[in-house]
Each structure stands twice: as structure tokens, then as C-alpha cells.
Specification:
The complex is a heterodimer of chains A (99) and B (480). By secondary structure, chain A is mainly alpha-helical. In chain A, 33% of the residues lie in helices and 4% in strands. In chain B, helix 2 runs antiparallel to helix 3, helix 10 packs across helix 12 and helix 13 packs across helix 15. Classes of the chains: A mainly alpha (99), B alpha/beta (480). Chains A and B meet through helix 1 and helix 2 of A and helix 10, helix 11, helix 12, helix 13 and helix 14 of B.
Chain lengths: 99, 480
């Protein structure tokens, strides 16, 4: 086993994702299969290989820097338009501090 | 007017000769789309008012003798992971079922500035995660060529609306094959340009180092014209490239004679024999055009899927953290605390495949595993990119199959996620290297299922890629 149901539960907590018991069982099975396939990477010696985080091609080093000029963003109403719950110009969430 | 036969050039000619107006094309496209959708479920939403208004602008320009733009009067489908101001953009997810974006994606803005008519938003796998379009929360798309089969994914709707003739062209997105594979399954042209060639501003993020926007069309020329319209630097996407956009229309007029084409041995193993037969017939067409066929080797190909599913899930787990129950319309009714708000909202609104990828991505990035998984995968990605760099020292383009098999039946693979991942083998490598690649139709199996041939070229050599694809098309390669 590459991953246990207990580990699946702790990863779900890290991901802020509620999963029911059936989902946990299924997830453990699926992730186990995928992680077993991923083990294949250990066949490759990658010592001395530079990791590739982004597609690289020829470009000047500061090519993406732009002038720092102010511009107009969304107004408050637009920014809140998709909020499930808002009030007084803010997003509202369940209370986290007891007075 | 038979919209399913009209190319962009034919629409331009018809408008100029006043054989029809943009408003007439638009009304016809919307009528077709509504009828076809009963069969295929390819559109999630039509936007008639927006499209008709765009059509009226085109007709007014033509009446005034002004240039109405490269896409004037052309019906365009837009994948529902690309945001449209005031038109819901669901990403095929319950999470965004009612989300109304406050802005347009740069690609959408450019399509409309060129006179294109955005007629609707196309169905897709949830957050573009899938290879069959069966992961949409709003039901699968059926392949217009064979209604009991999948259209491929994740841009299944964008491929289907072009194949069924309701849109002339469409925009899709590709992270590991999500344009090329559905193009091959539906028998249309699908292009994944060089990473950074098209702005990702307004493309809902899945895996940012791999996400691309690209065009579908029924001809190479139509796909090239749409790419020409949307390509180019955008200050709103820092990864969009400064490289000048070449003249693709000039490129497709060139013949491919003398081009050196590499066939990588690794892409012809484990292939369904009917697919392999078609691809080799396609290679014969390339030979008859005067291309030189060269055997090449890409030794790290077999590691691509493992590296890809680490990188894309890691990036997805970070990108999808934003769906927290605060900003995007949906929040669980059961949540009492802040932590429950996050957990229940995400648990209720994400589908199975999205949860699987968030979990895998969170796992590979979790404390103690970073070096073994994410860092290792990035190094393997570098080795795969170096396979391409070496191959392109010897050849101008690579030709391979797109998928090991043609469109499969709905439900056939849905219970085996690993098998579904493994079917992405031929498209994932190009995505990891960030090179331009495309699928062109290459005949059909004896059952009449389309087969797609993949062409891959050097970074920013879309002209070479289109030159080869258009020569292939002119020589009858699409129906070998």
C-alpha cells in the first residue's frame, strides 16, 4: 500500500475537503494505483538535472516587467456581486472570534 | 446557406457580396445550435443577445464600407472555462453554476474586436479535468460522429460544435491534450499553440505552467485565422510571449516539400492497429508531398504521464484553493464554522475527478514529499523537453498519433481513472515541453470513427506546423 485510509483523511484535512467514508475508501484505492504508477520515475537518474518549473524560451530577463502605473480595478459592488453572503461592502463568513 | 460547410473565407466572401448578413448567419447558427444540442449537449448556454448585437455591429460596419474584421460574422463557440462578462462561466462545475464573471478573457475580447460572434459556451470536463467530457456536472457531450461515443475531453463541447457545424470555429483549452484529443475524436482540426502564445487572462486556472488556449476549426486555415486573431502579448498575463506573431495565412500557402519529419518510435508502440494504419497512410501522403521521413527517438516518453500527473495536480490543488465558499456564489448550507464552510462547500460542489486531483496534488506537495514527487517531476519534465530539443536539431516537425484509440463508448472507461490518464500518453509530452502541436484529421477506422494525426513543431514555429498541416489537407490527407 502506498497510502492508507488514515493518510487520505489527513490529506483531505490539508485540502479543506470533506469526504464521506465511501469516498475515502475509493480515494485510497485510486491514489494507491496512481502513486504506484508514479513510482516509475524512480527508474530515472535525475542527479544534475535542473528542474523545469516553467516553459523556457529566449527572452530578456526583465521582459515581463512593466511600468508601475495605477489603473482602475473592480468597484466594490462588482467585486461582491458573486459573494454567497455579503454586507456593508464586505464578504461575510462564519464568526471566528468570540467576543 | 449551409453553415456547416462555410469556412471563414466563405463567410467573408458572402458578406462582401451581400449574399447574407451577419445577423442572418447569427440567427441560423443559434437555430442550429438549439436543435443539435438536443442530440449532443455540446453547448451549456447560448448567448443570443450578445451574438446578435455583435452581428449588428458587423453589418453596420459593412454598410458603412468599413473593415469588419478577420472574423466578421463568424459564429464562435467558447469553452466554458474561458470567462465571458455577464454570461455564466461554469467550468462544467456545480461550484460555478451561477458564477457571472465581471470581465472578458483577453481571447474573447480579441475575437469580438475582430467581428466574431460568440454564440455560446461549450460543455467540458469539470475544470478541464478529464479525457472524455464525462466529468461535466451538466451531463456528458455526445460525439456528433457517433452519438453513443464520447467526444473526447476536456474540450469535448468545443470540438463537437465545430464537428456538427453549429460554430465555424471555437476556442478550447489544453493542459495535457484537451484540445488535440477531442479534435481527433470528432474529426476536426485542433491547435495547442506554443505555451505563452495566447494570453491566459480569463482562462480559469487549472495548471498554470501547462494551460493553453487554442482554436478548433474544420480546416487548417480556419484554425490558423482564429489563432492569428487571439495570439500575441497581453500585459495582463505575465507569461504571455513577446515574440512577434507570424503571418499564418502566408504559411499555409507554402508547400511542405523538403521538410524533414521525425517519427518517434516510442509513439508507435501500444497503438490500436486501426489507428496505426491510418497514421502510416498519412505518413505516405507526407512522403508523396516530398517530405523526408526520419526515425527519431524520444527516450523519456514513457515517464511523461507520471511527471504530468504530479505537476498538474500539484498546480491544480493550489489553483482550486480559491473555491472557498466566500467569493464564488456557492456556500454549503450545513456549515456552522469557518473550517466547515471550506470543507463542506468543496466536498459538496466538486465532482469526483476534481477531488481526486486536488487530493493527489495536496499529497505530492505535503511536507516531506516535495523532493520525491514535485521536484522529481520537474526534473523529468526537463528531460522530456530535452528529448524535443534534440529531435528538433534533426527534423522540422514530428508526426505521431494523437490517441492510442479512437472515440470510445460513453461509460466505457469511467471507472478506471488510471487507464483514462494513461490514454493521454501521446499528447502530454508536447504540453510538458510547451511546443506548438495540433491534431489534423487522418481518415477513419472501418467503423467510421475519426483518427487524428498529431504534428509537433519547435517553440513559436506555428508557421512550419501550419505549412505541413495545410499541405497535408490539400493532398487529401484528411480522408486517407
Amino acid at each position: 500500500m502506498k497510502i492508507t485510509e488514515q493518510e487520505v483523511r489527513s490529506v483531505a484535512t490539508l485540502a479543506h475537503l470533506s469526504l464521506d467514508d465511501a469516498e475515502i475508501r475509493r480515494m485510497a484505492h485510486d491514489l494507491d494505483e496512481i502513486l504506484t504508477h508514479i513510482d516509475k520515475l524512480n527508474e530515472l537518474d535525475t542527479s544534475g538535472v535542473e528542474p523545469m518549473a516553467q516553459v523556457l524560451y529566449e527572452a530578456g530577463e526583465t521582459a515581463t516587467l512593466r511600468e508601475d502605473l495605477p489603473h482602475t480595478g473592480f468597484d466594490n459592488e462588482t467585486a461582491l456581486a458573486n459573494a454567497p453572503l455579503s454586507g456593508a461592502g464586505h464578504f461575510k463568513v462564519p464568526k471566528i472570534i468570540e467576543r | 446557406m449551409d453553415l456547416s460547410k462555410l469556412t471563414i473565407a466563405a463567410i467573408r466572401g458572402g458578406l462582401a457580396a451581400r449574399r447574407f448578413s451577419a445577423a442572418e448567419i447569427c440567427a441560423e447558427a443559434l437555430r442550429n445550435a438549439e436543435a443539435e444540442n438536443q442530440k449532443t449537449n455540446a453547448f451549456l448556454r447560448l448567448c443570443p443577445e450578445r451574438a446578435l448585437e455583435a452581428a449588428r455591429r458587423v453589418d453596420a460596419k459593412i454598410a458603412a464600407g468599413e473593415d469588419a474584421g478577420a472574423l466578421a460574422g463568424v459564429p464562435v463557440g467558447v469553452k466554458d472555462v474561458i470567462v465571458t462578462r455577464g454570461v455564466t462561466t461554469t467550468c462544467g462545475s456545480r461550484m460555478l453554476e451561477h458564477w457571472m464573471p465581471p470581465y472578458d478573457a483577453t481571447a474573447v475580447e480579441r475575437v469580438e474586436a475582430a467581428g466574431g460572434l460568440v454564440i455560446g459556451k461549450t460543455n467540458c470536463d469539470e475544470f478541464a479535468m478529464g479525457s472524455s467530457n464525462e466529468n461535466s456536472a451538466f451531463g456528458p457531450v455526445r460525439n456528433p460522429v457517433a452519438l453513443d461515443r464520447v467526444p473526447g475531453g476536456s474540450s469535448g463541447g468545443s470540438a463537437a460544435v465545430v464537428a456538427q457545424g453549429t460554430a465555424t470555429v471555437s476556442l478550447g483549452s489544453d493542459t495535457g491534450g484537451s484540445i488535440r484529443q477531442p479534435a481527433s475524436f470528432c474529426g476536426v482540426v485542433g491547435v495547442t499553440p506554443t505555451y505563452g502564445r495566447v494570453s491566459r487572462y480569463g482562462l480559469v486556472a487549472f495548471a498554470s505552467s501547462l494551460d493553453h488556449i487554442g482554436p478548433f476549426g474544420r480546416t487548417v486555415g480556419d484554425a490558423a485565422t482564429l489563432l492569428q486573431t487571439v495570439a500575441g502579448r497581453d500585459p495582463l498575463d505575465a507569461t504571455s510571449a513577446f515574440a512577434p506573431v507570424h503571418d499564418y495565412e502566408a504559411a499555409i500557402r507554402q508547400n511542405a516539400g523538403g521538410m524533414r519529419i521525425g517519427l518517434p518510435a516510442e509513439y508507435f508502440k501500444g497503438l490500436n492497429s486501426e489507428t496505426g494504419d491510418r497514421i502510416m497512410k498519412g505518413v505516405d501522403v507526407l512522403k508523396s508531398l516530398g517530405c523526408e521521413i526520419v526515425d527519431v527517438t524520444m527516450p523519456h516518453t514513457e515517464y511523461a504521464i507520471a511527471a504530468y500527473y504530479i505537476i498538474c495536480t500539484a498546480e491544480a490543488s493550489a489553483n482550486l484553493a480559491r473555491y472557498d465558499g466566500v467569493r464564488y456564489t456557492v456556500r454549503s448550507d450545513r456549515a456552522q464554522t469557518l473550517a466547515e464552510m471550506y470543507e463542506f462547500t468543496r466536498g459538496e460542489a466538486f465532482g469526483a475527478e476534481v477531488k481526486r486531483r486536488i487530493m493527489l496534488g495536496t499529497y505530492v506537495l505535503s511536507s516531506g514529499y516535495y523532493d520525491a514527487y514535485y521536484l522529481k517531476a520537474q526534473k523529468v519534465r526537463a528531460l522530456i523537453a530535452s528529448d524535443f530539443a534534440r529531435a528538433f536539431e534533426k527534423v522540422d516537425a514530428l508526426v505521431t498519433p494523437v490517441s492510442p484509440f479512437p472515440a470510445f463508448k460513453l461509460g466505457e472507461k469511467v471507472d478506471d481513472p488510471l487507464a483514462m490518464y494513461l490514454s493521454d500518453i501521446y499528447t502530454i509530452t508536447g504540453s510538458l515541453a510547451g511546443v506548438p502541436c495540433m491534431s489534423v484529421p487522418c481518415g477513419a477506422t472501418p467503423d467510421g470513427l475519426p483518427v487524428g494525426m498529431q504534428i509537433l513543431a519547435r517553440h513559436f514555429d506555428e508557421p512550419g506546423m501550419f505549412q505541413l498541416a495545410a499541405s497535408f489537407e490539400r493532398a487529401g490527407g484528411f480522408t486517407v
